[in-house]
Specification:
The complex is a heterodimer of chains A (78) and B (397). Chain A is mainly alpha-helical and 78 residues long. Chain A is built from 3 helices and 2 strands. Chain B is an alpha+beta fold. Classes of the chains: A mainly alpha (78), B alpha+beta (397). At the A-B interface, helix 2, helix 3 and strand 1 of A face loops of B. The complex binds protoporphyrin IX containing FE and iron/sulfur cluster (SF4) (2 copies).
Chain lengths: 78, 397
């Protein structure tokens, strides 16, 4: 996976969470599946996408929330 | 010093000769205003018969999506000490072995950063530290990390794997429960700390079918020690037991498949009908021992009631040669687990446990999905369903 594609995936994940903030809670697995479909042409695997998500979380760009199940959310929503 | 909150209902729970969690909380409350308020709020819950914790909310440490359970009071003006009262889960050691020095340090950190209350061990197996605030969470976590501990699971992820004491203390153990529990915990660090499942997933390891970690009733994958060959009989010791108690009544008559009998004073077992329930070995441990070809059975789908009712685990793999596979870094088992997770990712819905998914799509669909052949042992309640469907080629025979 090139840095350029990685950036695209990252932007798309964070963009979706931002766009739907307060309206929809994204489960990590749903976003991973969605990205898998969206970036199928680029040949990305589920593990690739999980790797991108891992970096997003480690850098604190998104954080985990919990309400009956785990979801992704923006860090300033605390 | 007088009590901050009057707790007449909790006081009832101090009566009698037993250990009382109320008494222990009061002792912790002497040093912790937080725990003082906790007592007040718990009293209210007993009175109102509802919880006073709000549901949900954020609590955690950096980049971990699991390991802390958020608890917020619904009456923070009344009980400011428990405005936040999160639980921090610390991954326990395999088989719960600690030395006293480590235990004191674990407790010391809980006193410094939380309400001085520990839960050894929660139902998941973890050590739980009660009464952590978000502001102190990172420091508490770092202190535990320096001691060599890590957070456990929580949320929609792999929950902290747990095991019985196994060969470390128990002669019944058929495999090294501690080793596989430790090895798989290390292998699945991402799955443990970064929730990416539909819901929780538990792995529990018991060395024999006494199942001391209750894996068959509460873990999505239960690993229960068993053997393939015959039970080893020491006839001299059988005779000693016969002198001591009614072996016919308490052992033979209670064998679930009635596969044991006496020929003269010699005990005979029809091992082909033995279901490895362990009852006879428990009753006469000096006379009977499990066989030499040891391994484990894998059950799938157990859960406690929550979204839907409780389920017991169903036999998935009657005999898995764990000793052989551990030499290859559990390649075979990891392949199976990965197929199961893939199938669950693909077809499971939010908050659906694997057992519920199998019930919804049907066992045959599930087996095709994970690449296993159906076998008779998978029939959950044998001899109760008269409807048997044969494939054409079977029917022709
Ligand atoms: C035209 C009439 C009927 C049709 C087409 C029909 C069809 C079916 C089918 C497709 C199944 C599922 C078989 C499987 O599990 O693979 C089934 C199961 C069953 N049927 Fe019928 N059936 C008919 C009449 C009846 C009648 C009249 C009775 C009882 C008086 C009956 C009792 C049952 C029972 C007890 C089951 C088993 C349910 C279970 O899985 O435990 N059926 N039937
Ligand atoms: S499950 Fe079996 S092996 Fe493990 S501690 Fe209990 S009796 Fe011993
Ligand atoms: S292990 Fe259970 S089924 Fe097997 S012989 Fe003993 S009592 Fe019977």
């Amino acid at each position: 996976m090139t840095d350029e594609i990685k950036k695209k995936v990252e932007d798309k994940i964070i963009g979706l969470v931002k766009e739907y903030a307060g309206k929809k809670r994204f489960k990590p697995i749903d976003l991973v599946k969605e990205m898998e479909r969206d970036f199928a042409a680029e040949g990305l695997t589920k593990d690739d996408i999980k790797g991108v998500l891992k970096d997003i979380m480690d850098e604190g760009k998104l954080v985990y929330g919990y309400a009956g199940g785990s979801f992704l959310t923006l860090p300033d929503e605390n | 010093m007088g009590k901050k909150h009057q707790t007449p209902l909790l006081d009832e729970l101090k009566k009698g000769k037993w250990i009382s969690f109320v008494r222990e909380m009061e002792r912790a409350a002497e040093k912790s205003p937080r725990t003082e308020d906790l007592l007040g709020q718990v009293e209210e819950s007993y009175r109102d018969k509802i919880t006073h914790w709000k549901h949900g909310g954020m609590a955690g440490v950096k980049s971990y999506g699991a390991g802390m359970v958020g608890r917020f009071s619904d009456s923070p003006e009344k009980y400011p000490g428990v405005k936040e009262c999160h639980s921090m889960r610390i991954n326990q050691t395999s088989g719960f072995f600690y030395n006293s020095d480590v235990l004191r340090k674990i407790a010391g950190i809980a006193e410094k950063y939380a309400g001085g209350l520990l839960n050894l061990h929660g139902a998941t197996g973890d050590i739980q530290i009660l009464g952590v605030t978000q502001a102190e969470a990172e420091d508490a976590f770092q202190a535990y990390a320096e001691l060599g501990f890590d957070l456990g699971g929580g949320g929609s992820d792999l929950r902290t794997p747990s095991c019985c004491v196994g060969p470390a203390r128990c002669e019944f153990s058929n495999y090294d429960t501690l080793k596989i529990c430790y090895d798989l915990t290390r292998e699945y660090q991402d799955e443990l700390h970064r929730p990416s499942f539909n819901y929780k997933f538990k792995l529990k390891f018991s060395g024999c079918s006494n199942d001391c970690v209750a894996s068959a009733s509460r873990s999505d994958l239960a690993f229960i020690g068993t053997w393939k060959d015959n039970i080893k009989i020491n006839q001299e010791e059988v005779k000693n037991y016969v002198k001591k108690f009614d072996v016919q009544k308490y052992v033979l008559d209670k064998c679930p498949t009635k596969c044991m009998w006496f020929e003269g004073d010699k005990l005979v077992i029809d091992d082909s009908n033995c279901v490895k329930c362990h009852h006879c070995i428990n009753e006469m441990p000096k006379a009977l021992k499990s066989g030499d070809e040891k391994g484990l059975s894998i059950l799938i789908g157990a859960k406690a009631p929550l979204v839907t009712g409780p389920r017991m685990g169903m036999m998935l793999v009657p005999f898995y040669d764990v000793n052989e596979d551990s030499k290859n870094d559990y390649e075979q088992l990891k392949g199976l687990i990965s197929n199961i997770w893939e199938f669950w990712d693909e077809y499971g819905v939010s908050r659906e446990r694997i057992g519920e998914l199998i019930a919804r799509v049907g066992l045959v669909t599930f087996l095709e999905g994970v690449g296993l052949e159906p076998i008779p042992e998978m029939v959950n309640t044998p001899r109760t369903n008269p409807f048997i469907k044969f494939e054409d080629e079977d029917a022709a025979q």
